[in-house]
Amino acid sequence: MKNDLLLVTDxxxxxxxGQKWACLDTEGAAERILSVIRAMEQAGNDQIIFTRFLAxxxxxxxxxxxxxxxxxxxxxxxxxxxxxQFADALGRYPLYTKSVYSSLAIPEVLEAARKAERVVIxxxxxxxxxxxxVFALIDAGIYVVYLTDGVSGLDREKxxxxxxxxSGLDPLxxxxxxxxxxxx
Length: 184
Fold this sequence. Notes:
Strands 3-2-1-4-5-6 form a 6-stranded parallel sheet. The chain has a single domain (4-183), classed as Rossmann fold (3-Layer(aba) Sandwich). It is of the alpha/beta class. The N and C termini lie close together (10 Å). 42% of the residues lie in helices and 20% in strands.
């Protein structure tokens, strides 16, 4: 844990219960992520980064259609804000914005990930931004710790499918575990 980078992916209001892009357990994942943040701080590790997805103002290719389809969410300030549970941590750690799925598209995130021993990935959406980021990390030669209960997907079936895909890369590129196991 001492030399890990915690990457908190897209924990925005739109992914909470009852919202348009609601994930299965965003609120539960948020609480578990906060426990990881506290443990890392107690261990003297301040390598924590948050990312968020905001639509590109000038999208290209398939992103044009995506942004048209999701114009209502893209225009909502509240939907795109980070969960209030993270307000305190966001005062201490950087928040970077991306307009694609992978958080590694952000140069500062890639640079920090390369300096870390491992990247601990959490957030939403399991089968989308999180999965894309995991593959980008692996392609960059960076070992990933995937916290299964620190990630939330659209539903249990999609979460399970994502975990099944990643299980084929465990333990060579990815180590899958729960938050409790990580904190032990």
